[in-house]
Amino acid sequence: MTSPTHRFTPEELESLPIARAWTIPASWYTGAAFHRIDLEAIFERTWQCVGDLSALTEPGCFVTAQVGQAPVLVLRDKEGALRAFHNVCRHRGGPLATAASGCVKALTCQYHGWTYLLDGSLRGVPRWDRVDLFDKKDYGLVPVRVETWQGQVFVNLDADAAPLAATMQGIAERIAPVRIDELTLMKRIDYEVGCNWKVYVDNFLEGYHVPYVHPELMKLYDFRRYQTELAGPYSLQWAPIEPGDAPYDIRPGDCAYYYFVYPNYMMNILPGRVQTNVVVPIGTDRCRVEFRFYYRDAKGEAAERAIADDLDYSDRIQREDMDICALVQRGLGSPAYDRGRFSVDAEQGVHHFQEQLRESYRAWSTRAALPTSH
220 to each of 23, 68, 245, 316, 349, how far by Cα in Å? Predict the structure, then answer.
């Protein structure tokens, strides 16, 4: 497969402190080549959240996902171990599973019926008696790295990437006593957003827009004390919260925590619930955001009412973000705009993310043997 071409200039990839830095060029959001570049340079090189262990409780249970350009499958094998494979038959590339999740006794290609055991080994090949020099042992499924964090399942196509624990280091201690794997996953909602995935991430990473886009959130936060912290592969925005119209049992000292883990994983932590978001690029100007809602109290009429209120509240905020992100995407396509500057006070998270993008693009350029232009 040929790599997409873009000749990065030294100026584009230069890292500068936020007070002197420019935002990334508009072409990185709108250029046709960048969808493939992002899949190769970023999504196929990082830990990607593909589901929750609650869907993988029994041998044969599986979930599927698209990671970069690769369809993948994660399952529980016969011995109870977690395994991940490329969801691609070794015969002619057919899919082994087409459903988002399910349970099977074996994996059967949906194209020509090749059958694989849950450990990925090839077991059955229809109408193959006359084929020479063929050994089933050489045609098992191609494995993918899989690890978990607090009950969530992550895969990584890069065999040389650091362990997931290195990416998440320090988060569990900071959010304690909250643990996602001690909460109940109650709902998944997917939104398709009319913008490049980087626009959506930029928007998540600053509270600068909150007074103008999210009037309801202004009643929740003590906005004067809104803080951003940077920590290697992730950033954290947090603020004290106050009782008001929001559907949360807020007590003195409570805070809202918003984690972003490069490149596309988010955690929104409020009293009694955690919401995770995974931003998936599906085109140059479109992305899908997968919301999963976890709750401490999930049973009884009062809990059901609280969850319904939270889902409604979240949906209103999300639709405000969707609207503004789509308008920003349109603005980025204007000939009047190329690059901007950062607010040192309010956009540290955006600058941090865009520096991580530059690092990924520098590494991709080196691997693709595409020298920067002069």
Answer: 30, 36, 8, 14, 21
CA distances from 103 to 42, 70, 108 (A): 31, 21, 12
Looking up tokens 């090189």 gives 45
In angstroms, rounded to a whole number, what is the distance separating the alpha carbons of residues 181 and 149? 9
Separation of alpha carbons 342 and 19, rounded Å: 7
Q: How many CA atoms lie within 13 A of 144 on its CB side?
A: 28
Q: What is the pTM of this model?
A: 0.94
Do residues 48 and 63 touch, judged by C-beta distance below 8 A? no
Which one is the CATH code of 48-156: 2.60.40.10, 2.102.10.10, 1.20.1250.20, 3.40.50.10490? 2.102.10.10
Domain ranges, ordered by start, for the chain? 48-156, 171-351
User: 160: closest CA among 45, 251, 39, 327?
Assistant: 45
Cα separation, 374 vs 322, whole angstroms = 38
In the beta sheet, which residues pair with residue 147? 154
Of 28, 36, 32, 35, the closest CA to residue 9 belongs to: 28
Cβ atoms of 83 and 89 within 8 Å: the answer is no
CA 192 to chain centre: 14
pLDDT tens readout for residues 254-290: 899 999 999 999 999 999 999 999 999 999 999 999 9
Give the Cβ contact number of residue 156 at 10 Å.
Answer: 22
Contact (Cβ atoms closer than 8 angstroms) between residue 26 and residue 332: yes
- Check residue 77 and report its DSSP letter: -
* SS3 state at 65: strand
Q: Give tens-digit pLDDT for 140-174.
A: 999 999 999 999 999 999 999 999 999 999 999 99
Q: Would you say 287 and 193 are in contact if contact means Cβ atoms under 8 Å apart?
A: yes
Q: Are 342 and 351 in contact (CB under 8 A)?
A: yes
How far is it, in rounded angstroms, from Cα 71 to Cα 97? 10
Class of domain 171-351: alpha beta
Give the relative orientation of helices 197-204 and 348-367 as an angle to the nearest 10 degrees: 150
At 47, give phi and psi (nearest 5°): -75, 130
Write the DSSP symbol of residue 64: E
8 Å CB contact between 333 and 311: no
